[in-house]
């Protein structure tokens, strides 16, 4: 396994060299998006409108950060990942339409997202759940916030990050999926256990 330090905007070539199991740290721009933001961005696309931020080449974080205002500026207190499976219905199309290169979350994603990553050049990176305070330390500042009307967790938070990680490449552009591999192994082990009972 190899360790990579990537800077945004990230190219398709950058992500196609990553393999499942590699470690990644990201410096540059990352933005958060959960269910509501995914849905609205795709609605904008269908209407021929541009979302308020550039997404191509950037990292998308499945996160509803805890943010406070201090001295007139937003600051992230904690930024733990949310369960990525909730975004499976949107993510393949999101990758295709907006050109995000790295998606960060927890719990993995399904076959539609994996297929889009292979076709369009993106990877899914796992970040440890429960480590939101650690993630907050890698966030140097909030560049902007969009769609705050959706609520703090659902808004698009545009973040400047430095060595955000460690992230583990869990789904790569070759269709390798660590979560699927673990499930296959679990099924094999279950069969062995059942035979012994």
Helices, by number, come to: 6
Beta strand count = 9
CATH architectural name: Alpha-Beta Barrel
Q: What is the radius of gyration?
A: 17 Å
**Annotated CATH topology:** fumarase
Topology:
Elements: E1 3-7, H1 12-16, E2 23-32, H2 35-46, E3 59-61, E4 66-70, E5 73-78, H3 88-98, E6 102-105, H4 111-120, E7 123-126, H5 132-138, E8 139-146, E9 156-171, H6 178-196
Parallel strand pairs: 1-2, 2-3, 3-6, 6-7
Antiparallel strand pairs: 2-9, 4-5, 7-9, 8-9
Helix pairs in contact: 2-3, 3-4
Note down, in words, how this protein is organized.
The protein has one domain (3-196): fumarase (Alpha-Beta Barrel), CATH 3.20.130.10. It has 197 residues and is α/β, with parallel strands linked by helices. The protein has a five-stranded mixed beta barrel with strand order 2-3-6-7-9. Strands 4-5 form a two-stranded antiparallel ribbon. The chain has helices at residues 12-16, 35-46, 88-98, 111-120, 132-138, 178-196, and strands at residues 3-7, 23-32, 59-61, 66-70, 73-78, 102-105, 123-126, 139-146, 156-171.
